[in-house]
Queue: 4 jobs
Job 1
Amino acid sequence: MNKIISSPMNYIGGKYKLLPQILPLFPKNIKTFVDLFCGGCNVGINVAAKKTIFNDNLIYLIELYRKFDSLNKKEILSHIYNRINQFNLSISNKDGYLELRKLYNSEKNPLDLFVLVAYSFNHQIRFNNSHEFNNPFGKDRSCFNEHMKNNLLDFLNTLNKNSVDFTSFNFDEFDFSGLSSNDFVYCDPPYLITTGTYNDGKRGFTGWNEIEERKLLKILDSLNEKKVSFALSNVLDHKGKENLILKNWIKENNYFISYISKNYANSNYHTIDRNKNSTVEVLITNYNPQSVVQENFVLKLA
């Protein structure tokens, strides 16, 4: 496997650490790869495909990626360092951070969003119902350091080498009609039975509930009918809760489950902690990935 590229964005639910387990489960020779809930782009940026479509309903994130794709590295770094100097940004200057945040919310310069994320709490992205960036300052912790810079440069280098497109549709508005059997759709939606802040619909963007869950599963069924391969990241169980909608859907359609471990590189169903408070993370596919997997067990839901 080639070097895994890490997104310069610390996106909630990002799959960077799980890529050594997930990527080998994907088909080979992908024509168009659709990263339907791209978030930090950790998955899509690491998939070898003739073309990659990064989609996310967070328009400001997509605008940032488009800006990354349209400018050269020198222009991007120049803007970042100019803003750092202009607002005297540091791990202790909260006032400078708040001034830049105010400027971004009035002008919405995409590169300013990246600078804000560098100095925000846990490098996270958060908007309110008015679509204002409102993540607090990352006091004594967050800054644009060498690690973040190197991740950005690696990301930009990979982006420039690939054929990419960026779209900002809600998942149920995305146009799948042009896809065929050589294409591949990857979905990493909010998880129905977890409590991420992105689930609640109180951030000015669509929340996640049973209605959204069923919409997505219906879309995946329609892709399956068209012989388009898909993979869905999700959890079957989490802290005593179980996603019965998802479990029943898998069983009814005879889809395949690969069990993913957050703790070690290779796992199978029998080695997962099965206590009632465990989280069972899975990759669900409409094809059997066993032919390209050496270590992971791939099981049907009993």
Job 2
Amino acid sequence: MEWTEPGVFEVAPGVYRIPLPLPNDGLHTVNVYAIDDGDGVVLIDSGWALDAGEVALEAALGALGRGFEDVRRFLVTHVHRDHYTMAVALRRRFGTKIALGAGEQPSLAKITARRRDGFRDLATWGAPHLAERWRAVVESVGEAELRDYEEPDEWLREDDLALEKRVLRVLPTPGHTRGHVVFIDAESSLLFAGDHVLPHITPSIGFEPARPALPLGDYLDSLRLVREHPDLRLLPAHGPVTESSHARVDELLAHHEDRLTATLDAVRAGTGTAFETARVLGWTRRGRKFAELDLFNQVLATGETAAHLDVLVHRGLLTAAEDDGVVRYAVVS
């Protein structure tokens, strides 16, 4: 995949894509975007706080005639480790300012308070055995990894950010996470999309420390919000740069409608919980069976199925009732 190759790639005048490595991850790399801004640079996202990532970022900045000390600020699309934690690590050494969407406050508060309780959602979704396995994984995470997280210097809300050479519009796009934001450079027709709009895959929905009531509903609303803006060049966090944000948004909206139909059909066929429904659906573009997924992706799949089921309830097509701590869904008769 060409987009995963290391280096520095100019994607617009004064804007550079820098792929940074991810550990044992099917995504392979995360794109950080460096914006030339006078005597410094601004970075959109930061990468995962890994030695290999830091070496790659330092080399890329060096190719631009810059160093870590020249990074004015990190504008981070969301709180996930592969976007946020390198910024925290570099701030500790260089004092670089970090900005993050205000909607991430509840989740970040849980992370920094060491509240590791995502397994509770899994039990509610009818997967107590997954909950126990996930609990063991989460509790094995060392304090050093938890310390990768700190609060940002600035909480971003919808607004215009004036850099020295350009203005970026901050647009909250909850869904992948409740505090996800994208950045729009209207003058250059660029969308720094983070994980909100990805060219080849759909972002995970519905599994985060502070889960909102209707994460998929939020995500679909956020896609429509981006669609209301002019068609922009898509600069994603994972995958190649593409020319039309509208085209990909339309594909994602259609995909989730198809997924909602498949989810409804599964309940009609007799599934009752999110876990039971997830087990009969196909996963990834190859339609893999649930049992073929690793633990982490089974957890994500169960949470995403719950998110689709809740939208169907919201649309009046299903009912949901809690019984002994487990939510069960049924078709509206």
Job 3
Amino acid sequence: MFALRTFLGGDGVRRLGVIVNPIAGMGGRVGLKGTDGPAVLARARELGAEPVSGQRAARALAELSAQVLAAPGAMGADACAEAGLPCEVVDIGTAAGAAATRAAARAMLAAGVDLLLFAGGDGTARDVLAEIGTRLPILGIPTGVKMHSAVFAQNPAAAGRVAAAFLEGRAAAQEAEVMDLDEEALRQGRVSARLHGVARVPRERALMQAGKSGAAIPDEAALEALARRIVSEMQTGRLYLLGCGTTMRRIKRALGFDGTLMGVDVALDGRLLAADVTETQLLRLLDQAPATAILGVTGGQGFVLGRGNQQFSPAVLRRLGRENLVIVAGQQKLAALDPACLHVDTGEAALDAELAGYIAIRTAPDRSAMLRIAA
């Protein structure tokens, strides 16, 4: 391991701080919209949720060769060890949960690291921002359920490459918004977003995700008509797995039910079969009938999978097959994407590559657009 002086001395070597939120993303596959609060975390564990952030952090760290200061155990050091990256462990005392994240961020700021790499979601970004502000550049490894902030890379490997570019002096820093949604409001079918501040992040446009944007009003009439058309095309005896978001809600309402705004619902023969399902429930249903998944596009970001719909796990997606994925989005939403491509972050790089390539996105009853899913 590196001696602590390598982080505090004037050796001219840029240093990386690493913090992992070990529970980030656990609520995704079990349909809980996040893991904010002990009660939700306990429920996630009851439903069989497993930690995902450590593994995703290790995937990012495997892209790096750097001097590292890490939070202890599952909060950073374990991921460094899994990636084969030596680190010095910072002392955060007895702090736990969000307080531990904040304590680690304070310690790394005091130690003078050049970049703070954290694994988590929007809630973790808020905790880091609260201690760091704009005094230190930060970069998020996307491991949460909801990631609307513009401080995250597109996927773990991209986070590692962005961090390497910054530490090697190949990328400068720019300002980016930190947003978060109210998880309890989401569970009640309401979207309540708030801007919590501005952070400094490495500027690597091709590898960073944009902040989420709202839907474009001019698309409303076309999307309402498309929702009715999609419902009229549904086949008897076939399951329709309806993703989350306002575009998908139009289809759910065209079927006669409100559905779950930020969850996955399943329809069969024109009616709601199962609401707000988990990965396990989807796998059971896929054993019973053929299925089509209908997915929306995250505004401003271009994500189809891996942002708020982790119930579509690698196991579910492989059972479905790429040919049974239907993507629906407004023309204005697609036109606003920069770069003009879609993204997936399933948790498995090999599956992401299998899903890559051009795909049709339905934008109106008789109109589609061809866009590339970037590998």
Job 4
Amino acid sequence: MFLSGLRVDRGRGRVVAGCAAVLAALGVLLWWLLPLGEPEPRGSVTFSTGVRDGVYQRYGVLLKDVLAKDLPQVDIELRTSEGSQQNLDRVASGEADFTIATADAVAKYQRDGKPGAERLRGCARLYDDYVQLVVPDGSSVRKVSDLRDKRVGVGQNGSGVRLIADRLLDAAGLDPQKDIESVPNGIDTVPQLLERGDIDAFFWSGGLPTLAVQALSERYPIRLVPLEHDLIQKVHATGVPTSHYRSAVMPPDLYPLAQSGLPVNSMAVANLLVTTDRIDADLVEGLTRTVIKSRDDIGNTVHPAQLVDLRTAIYTAPLDLHYGARGYYRSVKP
């Protein structure tokens, strides 16, 4: 009986072992077949970029290509715009989900109490825009105040360029509505207008180098007008939110044919990747990760993107970081 019982126990052991093996196999199969862990972000989002040929628009196109690989379940629609101010209107109203805007435009949007301003959130500080005042090489314009009675491209009405141009003109003692002929065109058209003689100068604020300015310098003799240090001080003294502006110098080899080997004094302001508190945290975390990770790839084509830095990306003032972006930065903190 002992031996018989032993044979029964062994038989049961084999059955138990067999069941365990089957369950293990099923577990492996389920692990492969079923989506475990956090679900991937999915759906459709709209990204408001900028004017054609501008850095925002070119950056958005390249970012969309990278996101197609990193977030394959998310469909990105790009929409061109007049620039920072229109971009903020779109995101705050829910017309767009993500955008790029300058820090000064964000500060003005908040100060003006625009609808939805309290919902705006930052994902990353990207790169700095530099103010570029471009004139024909033979122009008599040597400083901003010399623009009196001139035809000046000041940027489209909804652009960050227009915001900065108006502030610089005001600091120089010029009324943008009376003392110059303001031409509300952007970087997609002002180079051609200057080349044809339809305008005498244009303002641009963008990452360095701006290809449209570079291309113009290679086919038409132009010069960059430096911004005087005391002029930038006057901008800061106007009482509007200008703390996001800083004095900066454009390197001498930026536009070799337009600078004669000389650096150019300018003013810089940070660009921010912006969304709202309505956007899912996982989506924001994934998009922020892609922006940081793709810096070098995108930077090979859009050179300002090379300046995106993990150490400074979290500084999105005047906006609070979105919760999803905060989660990403915490995950990569050393």
